[in-house]
């Protein structure tokens, strides 16, 4: 039986080793004025609220903007690119100082980004990347290395399999994130790199489909996976919420998550740690959602005309450890 102290040690170890008004729902702007000077106005378009990670990310942006004394115009795209494009055009019309957004998908942004550039409003990407015909259409990206997260998921799976004493073929089901989104593309890519380089003979992704980063999607797609491939013995989920949804389907099928089907996911939210403390998720790779403070630093530099790096990696944090601490009181050991 894993005791509280050992669980926290294990959880931190995993983190280290795996490490619209028009078409979009817009919140009222938070405002402040620092030292009597005009506050920076930031227009921020969020992907949506599809997961625990995304909620933490939105909270981080809102609280950091308030602390920095910026006027924040925040919109929720509800996972629709057309909503996000409408929000960005709305920010251009309002003549905000800086636009930041976490893009729903990778492609299809050139037209609206050219409009922002023509209006001389700098654009900062957060969390996710885009593909553009002109690299000058955005200033920088503040986010995580999703490809490396996929690699780390594969490497931690090696340890999970070893600990479980697994022998023989590894038949993997993959729950992908939203089709066309950077984390879905890049996490799958990184996982595949390690699999093909080190496990070409014994690992195989037998089924792979998007669960749209949601619990409902993970549950529905995993149920279909188990119907078509009942001999799956590993699940790689691109985020914790899909893994949690999948657990419901695994249990409904009479199987034990974490034992009959080993599970590795990415994020590190509280509910993921609850599932891990119950032995239902075997390992979690960290993706830090607390980008707000870094984003506000970048926004100020961009507004002041300072040069910033093209890609700014998310800072390491105690986020996963905090989530583990919050999750532990729900169980006795």
From TrEMBL:
Query: Can you cite an annotated GO cellular component?
Result: cell envelope
The residues the entry assigns to the signal sequence are 1-24
Segments forming domain Periplasmic binding protein: 44-306
Q: Which keywords accompany this UniProt record?
A: Signal
Q: Give the location in the cell.
A: Cell envelope
Q: Which InterPro entries match?
A: Peripla_BP_I, SBP_2_dom, TAT_signal
Positions of transmembrane segments: none
* Predominant place of localization: other
Matching SUPFAM superfamilies? Periplasmic binding protein-like I
Q: Does the keyword Metal-binding apply?
A: no
Q: Name one GO molecular function term.
A: carbohydrate binding
The text of the family note is:
Belongs to the bacterial solute-binding protein 2 family.
Q: What is this protein called?
A: LacI family transcriptional regulator
**Origin organism of this chain?**
Streptomyces qaidamensis
